[in-house]
Design brief:
This protein is α+β, with helices and mostly antiparallel strands. Helix content is 35%, strand content 32%. The chain contains 2 helices and 3 strands. A 3-stranded antiparallel beta sheet has the order 1-3-2, covered by helices on one side. It starts with 8 loop residues before the first strand and ends with a strand.
Length: 72
């Protein structure tokens, strides 16, 4: 496993959202819950300096993409 330096951002994306069917029905609630879950997982492991969603499948993007900056 590669270590994370203090200045390296983590970018990740979902090509297939595990909550997509439910998010189509209640996007604000389901996407908000999913974002909180992901942010909480990062905050458990790292000090999170920045966590933001750059793209969202509900807004006709092909993936859900996040930009995260953490320190160890």
């Amino acid at each position: 496993m590669e270590s994370i330096s203090d200045t390296d951002p983590i970018k990740f994306h979902y090509d297939h959202c595990p909550f997509n069917e439910y998010a189509q029905l209640e996007p604000l609630f389901i996407c908000g819950l999913h974002n909180a879950l992901l942010k909480g997982m990062f905050e458990t492991l790292y000090f999170v300096e920045e966590f933001k969603q750059e793209e969202n499948m509900i807004n006709d993007c092909s993936t859900c993409r996040y930009h995260v900056i953490v320190t160890n």
